[in-house]
Design goal:
The chain is of the alpha/beta class. It has two domains: 198 residues, 4-Layer Sandwich (Metallo-beta-lactamase, Chain A); 67 residues, Arc Repressor Mutant, subunit A, CATH 1.10.10.10. 29% of the residues lie in helices and 22% in strands. The protein contains seven helices and 14 strands. The strands form three sheets. It has a seven-stranded mixed sheet with strand order 1-2-3-4-5-6-7, with helices on one face. A hairpin with a 4-residue loop joins strand 10 and strand 11. Helix 4 packs antiparallel against helix 5 and helix 6 crosses helix 7. The protein is elongated. The termini are far apart.
Amino acid sequence: MAEHPTGIPILLEPLVTRVLAPNPSPFTFTGTQSYVVGDSDVAVIDPGPDDPSHLAVLERVIAGRPVRAILITHHHRDHSPASRPLSRSTGAPIVGSAPRVRGGEDGRADAAFDRDYVPDRVLAEGDVVRGHGWSLRAIATPGHTSQHLAFALPETGALFSGDHVMGWSTSIVSPPDGDMTEYMASLEKLMGRDDRVYYPGHGEAVDNPQRLVRGMLGHRKQREGQILRLLKEGAALPVEAMVARMYVGLNPKLVPAAERSTLAHLYDLRTRGLIREEGATWTIA
């Protein structure tokens, strides 16, 4: 934590300053990272929770410079709520991820979302926000959420990866909005790029992003293999029983997240015709 303090701006490279929000948790690690990008004018990526102390630090970094846009990778409550007061104070538009399109009745899945998020402009693949000497290009990376975006900074080879690729853990994929099929495809998409560094929503900068993404793909495929082996043993199993056997020693606070990601794997395997659902249990097709 000494190298990554809350509320103290860290200049990562000439065009990028990071500010850590004071919201650490088992789901956010040390907290949500906001980024101020630019020089004579700037953009703010993922301003984080609506916390007055965090907003004060962001405004101190902005230092009266024109803010061309407030960019949102996805509208979870730890990423987007501060966009509204920051937009009011700077006059900048809120752009980026679309509002939620896949919903459900599951309170655990719904609770993470910023329900008041309404962007001024939705960005699609390839859309660009520009300032003096910098540009941010939207890269569609659905999976963690259905409308998740990353933002590439071609001037330096950096990619702001949001929660699609984090510097401390694999991402939670929680149906119905999260989708494992899309998540895996988005990882494969990033494998086809040559970004120099990732600046994630949580965790340290990723200096060898190709190696990390390759490892994340391997991790998900291993988890998929675990599920199939369990079900091939013959018993129909509920999600809770699978998680108990696959995630031995897991922090109890993270068990619900593990159950959501396991469910996302099950939906993906069902779509591929490898397993089937039988009431509250799953079995080999």
